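A reminder before we start the practical. When you read a complex entry, don't treat the lines as separate problems. The point of joint prediction is that each chain is placed relative to the others, so the output describes one connected object in space. Small molecules and nucleic acid strands, if listed, are placed in the same frame. In the example below there are two entries. Take a minute to note the order of the lines before looking further.
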Amino acid sequence: MSNVTEKSHAELAAAFNKDEPRVDWHDETLWWVRQKRDIQAHKLPEWELLRETASQIKNNVLSNLSGYLEQFEANAIKNGVVVHWAADAAEHNKIVHQLLTERGINRMVKSKSMLTEECHLNEYLKEQGLDVIDSDLGERIVQLAGEPPSHIVLPCIHKKKEEIGDIFHEHLGSAKGESDPKILTETARQHLREVFLTRRAALTGVNFAIAETGEFVICTNEGNADMGAHLAEIHIASMGLEKIIPERKHLGIFLRLLTRSATGQPITTYSSHFKKPQENKQIHIIIVDNGRSIQLGREDFRNSLKCIRCGACMNTCPVYRKSGGHSYHTAIAGPIGSILAPNLDMKKYADLPFASTLCGSCSNVCPVKIDIHDQLYKWRQVIVKEGYTPTAKTIAMKAMAITLSSPALYRSGGKMGRLVFKYAPFAVNNKLNPWYKHREMPKAPEESFGEWYNKRKEGKK
Amino acid sequence: MKVALFVPCYVDQFYPKAAIATLELLEKLGVEVHYPKNQTCCGQPMANSGYEHLTSGCNNLFIDNFSGYDYVVCPSGSCTLHIKEHLHSSENEDKALAIRKRVYELTEFLVDVLKVEHLEARFPYKVGLHNSCHGLRGLKISQMSELVAPAFSKPGQLLNMVQGLELVPLSRQDDCCGFGGTFCVVEEAVSSKMGIDRVEDHIEHGAQYITSADLSCLMHLEGILRRQNSDVKVIHVAEILNHYQP
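Here is the predicted structure of the whole assembly.
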């Protein structure tokens, strides 16, 4: 399940684009989700006010994060919950491992956690000889396929139902060639029922952690988080430290925005509140930093931590729709992933802020109003200054800057450029020019506007 | 009213007709237009590639050329937005600020400043309007489909004043064309596919011309149309607004 790769977004996207009908299908599928989101948003005249309110609540949270986290911890402890703090992914994974092994547990069921994808928990536990089963249908499908999720809300959106049928046939014994979603879902349900009944430990993510009450909320459609957590003797909840909201009354704002933005539903089927452990059972919360406090310290990028993981920016992003989630080679794909990932590893993810046309649609659908496309622009500046761009590009940019800073060089250069276009089209119309692969070069006119204007001024026009 | 015409570098070099139409249209509307002759480029190609720190030469040249006018008008949403958001100068920040406040994309200048309500123009064709992202989401010259807010379109409003012109509806009114500056070569596969899909939307709806307030998008779409040997043409919005075909 490792998603470590040496290939860039552009290379992976080019590979994805070799199958054009598949690109069309992927694009249409996600655009359909975007349209569902639009329909729901337009039903609420107060939509833009909701977004603004959510954004301001998160501003408050980010400005007072340590205080809210301490308040949350104190209240959770009062409720009988055990709270752990993890500085990074490795520490998070170790805590989970220890909680399991000290109870003699070697199998765990998991639901709704992109954070554990970010921490590569499954691989880590597997290496330790422990077995994890993802219980949400989409996550289970990609887990069986040996792939990471390609989307944070729709993890197997890149798979067609026939392909899912093949995976289920191989791993769960469904009939060969079966691709009826109802039958496949029932197959998964039967398989997971056994898992739920026999697992003593359940791990879930956290959508919202309420400082005022010490409770946390998980939003699901399938109810697997509840099923896992209620049947197991220990419930481990992993949360990024930015998941805090101050008071319970704020929850309504976010619940109204989250699923409308994500899938175009008014609300998820289940919004489950967890506050106190049942008798003879335990709840453990692991609060994970893993680079978040560094991001909080980056003034230009701190409000990326407002993200509530709805995935709306992915559904609307034309680059995501036409390149697929795996081309981002990081746990969280799409526009939001491209502003989060460079914080974790600037060199490895130097390509991601450039995997965008800066069209700005992401920022417009974001329910907490993160200025995603502006942050993509700003990451580009940081990445260049830190030296993570090819030398050839830097040389070309310097030459361009010199030419464009000088009217004389610009005039002669522009004329040369047009002459080359006109009389030596082979120089530009060849396979080494990426533009030419699918597009003709512009036709060179006889004269530039500047030249025309001078002639007109001299009365020749 | 003293107006400076800002003609972006690639328009100057490859699409002089759009600049000529802009100049003639403004003059027809009674505007005194100056063309500062030492202008080159807004600096966006470097800045969007992450090299904003190399743009001080362009910035200072821009300030030298465009200071002292009531308005700076440009037939490109993208270049206008770049100036509005990123024109700075360590030596002349006050002059940079003055220009940032006075720079207008052509259609917003016609609608918001000149308050044009009537045009002597005739263009008897079916036209698809491509909303450029920088004009749309940056300058907000039209309403954005993501927002829950009343619809409007400044270029659409002007095109509706043109006799004989029929605006065709599109399946996706403001999906990006995929040009994206250096994105078009760095991410060639995705960029081309985005352009191909945009073109298809216009063709499916019967457009004979694709127009826009941004030539960079049109240059991209034109490259695809010509590769497909399509009869559909691209044309800058200024060329339509300045057109009179009996």
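Discuss with your neighbour: The first helix of chain A runs from residue 9 to 16. What might explain this?
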